Amino acid sequence: MKMRRFRTGLFAATSITIVMAAMPAQAQAQERLAPVSVWGDRTETDPGSLAVIDSAEIDETLADHPAEILNKLPGVNIQMNSGQEHLVAIRSPVLTGGAGQGSFLILENGVPVRSPAFGNVNSLFEPHHEVASAIEVVRGPGSAKYGSNAVHGLVNVILPEVGGGSEAVGSYGTLGRWRSDVTLDEGEHWLAAVSLQKDTGWRDNTGVDQQKLTLVGDWMLGAWDTTTWLTASNLNQETAGFAQGPDAYKDEDIAKSNPNPEAYRDAWSARAGARLSGDFSGGTLTLTPYAHTQSMIFAQHFLPNGGVEKNGSTGGGLMARYEREASDSLTWRVGADVDMASGWLTEIQPDPFGFFPGDSRFPQGKHYDYTVDTLMGAVWGELDFALSEQVHLLAGLRAEAHEYDYSTDLAPGINGRFNVPADRTDNFDLLTPKLGLIWSVSEGVDLYANYARGERAPQASDLYRLQSLQVAGQVEEETLDSVEIGARGTALEGRLVYDLAAYWMEKDNFFFRDSDGLNVPDGSTEHKGVEASGALELTPVLSLSGSASWSDQTYTFDRITGSGTETIRDGNEIDTAPEWLANVSLDWQATDAIKLSLNVDHVGEYFVDPANTTTYPGHTVLGARGAWAFSDSAEVFLIVRNLTDEEYADRADLAFGNERYFPGEPLNATLGMKKTF
After folding, report:
1. Among 548, 674, 676, 659, which Cα is nearest to 613's?
2. 264: CATH
C-alpha cells in the first residue's frame, strides 16, 4: 500500500512540477523564500524552516479563505470545512478538539490572538489576512521562543504598515460571493482597513457574512518608537454538515445538500496591542502590551447529538524582550511574558438524541457550564554566537508556568457520556530548549541543523470537558521533540531560489479525539518528512515556483477497543495525514500590462480512520488567474478556481461509523478590480 502510494504521489508531484508552476519574478521569488526579520523577532541566522508570503502574493491570490494561500507552502495542509471553518495541519495530521486548538500558534503582529488555554481550531478566520503586509509561517516547534501551543508550528499575520499606500479591491464570484477590501493610509501616522465579504454559499443554506476592521498607528512617544493596532472581526454563517456515505462528494445532489440546515456559527473578536521599542543600556528594549476578547456560539454539526456550544474569553498581558550585542561574535536576547485571562463555556443539547431507543449517552439539557481563570508566566533566553564568519550557533531556552482555576455551575458527576468535574485548580510547567547551527558554505548557500522541543499545556476543554471514561487530572503536558536538517540558497546566477528540509519528530502525551468522538488522553506518534520549495526564472517574462512535501506519520502506541474502526496499532498511519502534498504555478508576464498565471494543487491519498480501513484517494485541482493593468494604478483581474470542475473533498474523515466529506467547490470564477492611490 505504501509503495503504491509512494509511486503514485511521486509521479503526480513530478508531473505537476514539469507541467506547471509560477512566481511573479526573480526578485519576488527571492523575497518569498529568503529569511526575513519580522518585528525584530527573527534573524537571518535562525536555523529552521521559515516561509514568508509577501504582500504582492497576498494581493494576487485574493484568498477568500486563508487556506488558499497558506497551502502553497510545503508541509502545510489547511483543510476547508464549511464557509470560513477549517482545520490546520503543519507537519502533522489534521487535528481536532484540544489538539487542534493547542498545536498551532496563531499570531497577529507577533502577539497570540488568544490566551494559551482558549484556542480555536478555526482561529485563522480571526486575523485580518486579507490586507496583511506579510504572513510568516514557521514549520516545526516554536515553543522555545513563542511558548505553549507552538508545537507543530505557527502562523504570524503581519498587519499593513503605515506608509505602504492606500488601496481598494472589489470582486464578485459566480458562486454568489462578493468581497471588498479598502485600506486608507494617511502615510505618516495612521491607516485604517476594512474587509467585507458576503457569500450566499454554493451548498444549501450556507451563507456567510464577515466583516473585519484594522486600525494601525505609528508614533514616536519620547524615545520610544511605537506602533499601535486595533483589529476586530465578526462572522455570521449558516454552516453545512458533512456529506455522508462512500464517495458522497462525487454525487452533485448530495454534495450541494446540507443535512444540518439549522446549523450556524456566530463569532466575534477584537484585539488591541502596542509595540514600544527603544535603546536601553547599550541594547534594544521592546515592550508589547496587548488585550483581546472573543465570543462564539455555534451548533456542533460535526456531532450526531446536535449540541449547541457557547464560549468566550477575555485576556491580556505583556511581552518584554531585551537584545544586546555583547561583541562582534555574540548577541544575546532575554524576555519575559505574562498573560491573564478568563474564559467560559456552555454546551447544551436542545433535543433528545440516541442511536437507538433507550440510548442515554446523549441526555437533553446542559452538558457543561463552567468558567476558567488562567495565569501564564514565562522567561526565556537566546544566544546567537558566531563560531566563525561562516558558522553561527543559536541556543535558546524557555521556562513557562500555567495555572488554571476552574469552577462549574453544574452538579459534578457523570451525565450520560459526559463527566462534569468538581471545582479544582491545575498547574503545568513547561521547559522548551532549542539548539541550532547554520553554516554559510558559500555565498548564497546555507546549511543548517536544528533541534527543538515543542510543548503545550492542556487546553481548558482538555481538562474540564471530560467524558465518562475520563478522570480529572489525567491530561498531562504534550511534548514534541524535533530534529531538522536543511539547505537554502540561490543558484544559476540568482535565477533559482530554493529551500530544502528533512525532519523527524516524536510526540508524547498526545491527547486527541477518536472517530467515535471519544477522548484519548495518552497517545504517542512519530512524524518524518522531506519538504522542498523553489522559484525559478525561466526567462525574463516566464517564471516557475512551487513546493512539494512527503511525510510518513504513524501512531506509536496500541489502543485496542471493541469497535474495529477504533483499534489503533503501533505503526498504523495517522488518519487525515496525506503522504504527498504539492503546489506549483506558472507565471507569464505576457506584456507590460497583462499577466497570466496557471497553478495546480495536489493532495495525495490518506487514511480517514485510525484503524487504516478506509482511504480518501486524494485530488488534483487546477486554477488560473489573469490581470490587465489598464493604468499605472488600476487593474482588472479574473480568477478561475477548479478549472476542470474536479469532484473532490476539501476534508474527509470517518466518524461514528460514517464516511464524511466536505465537498470542494465546483468550477467558479471571480471578476474584480484593484485600485491603488
Report:
1. 659
2. 2.40.170.20
